[in-house]
């Protein structure tokens, strides 16, 4: 048997031999399936953290807007701490919160009256203009708006699919429940 005939015979056997096909297909499919699995776990974690950040901002704004005329500075600190508890089981360390009172005049011009922050966030500058959405301005002319913002730097669990921090930010607006303004009273330490 010549070399050419043996080579043809081996190629023919290789073409009809199905042993190992499943292993090769498995080896080709597994990386894609693992990537999809890890990606879906990461996506669900990001969505869960984002919902918690939204709840933190909503809770903080709601708690402050329920105050009547004055709120103690230590109460705001307590509200910040209580709102941070919403992040469990995720770490509250990267959580930054800002709560502010914004006055909207008769023509829709805004002005920051006071602002408090925690977690390394920067409070708004008192007297500065604040970019409220036009729909919020329209319903709050000659009134105050409580703006609560929460932001979170989420680092993916595995870092396989995405290895950069994901910045999450939520902002909520509330009108004071009792109307008028809410003033922060730093001297009021009742209950602190």
Features:
192 residues, alpha+beta, four-stranded antiparallel beta sheet, 4 helices, 24% strand
Describe this structure in words.
This protein is of the alpha+beta class. It has one domain. Helices cover about 40% and strands about 25% of the residues. It is built from 4 helices and 6 strands. A 4-stranded antiparallel sheet has the order 3-2-4-5, covered by helices on one side. It has a two-stranded parallel ribbon with strand order 1-6. Strand 2 and strand 3 form a beta hairpin. Helix 2 packs antiparallel against helix 3. The model has no long low-confidence stretch (mean pLDDT about 85).
Structural class: alpha+beta
- How many helical stretches? 4
Q: Low-confidence spans: pLDDT under 50, at least 5 residues? A: none
Strand arrangement within the widest β-sheet reads: 3-2-4-5
User: What is the overall silhouette?
Assistant: rod-shaped
Helix amount, in percent?
40-55%
Give the termini separation: 99 Å
**How much β-strand is present in the residues?**
15-25%
Number of strands: 6
Oligomer: single chain
Radius of gyration: 29 Å
Describe the largest sheet.
Answer: 4 strands, antiparallel
Number of domains: 1
Task: Draw up the topology in text.
Layout: H1 3-16, H2 21-65, E1 70-72, H3 73-84, E2 95-104, E3 110-118, H4 134-139, E4 143-154, E5 166-174, E6 183-185
Parallel strand pairs: 1-6
Antiparallel strand pairs: 2-3, 2-4, 4-5
Helix pairs in contact: 2-3
């Amino acid at each position: 048997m010549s070399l050419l005939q043996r080579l043809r015979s081996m190629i023919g056997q290789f073409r009809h031999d199905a042993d190992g096909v499943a292993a090769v297909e498995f080896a080709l499919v597994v990386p894609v399936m693992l990537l999809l699995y890890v990606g879906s776990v990461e996506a669900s974690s990001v969505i869960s953290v984002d919902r918690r950040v939204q709840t933190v901002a909503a809770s903080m704004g709601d708690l402050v807007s329920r105050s009547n005329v004055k709120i103690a500075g230590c109460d705001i600190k307590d509200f910040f701490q209580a709102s941070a508890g919403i992040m469990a089981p995720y770490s509250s360390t990267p959580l930054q919160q800002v709560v502010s009172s914004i006055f909207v005049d008769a023509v829709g011009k805004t002005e920051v009256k006071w602002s408090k922050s925690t977690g390394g966030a920067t409070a708004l500058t008192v007297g500065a203009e604040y970019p409220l959405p036009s729909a919020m301005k329209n319903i709050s002319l000659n009134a105050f708006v409580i703006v609560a913002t929460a932001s979170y730097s989420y680092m993916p669990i595995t870092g396989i699919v995405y290895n950069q921090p994901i910045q999450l930010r939520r902002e909520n607006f509330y009108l004071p429940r009792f109307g008028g303004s809410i003033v922060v009273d730093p001297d009021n330490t009742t209950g602190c």
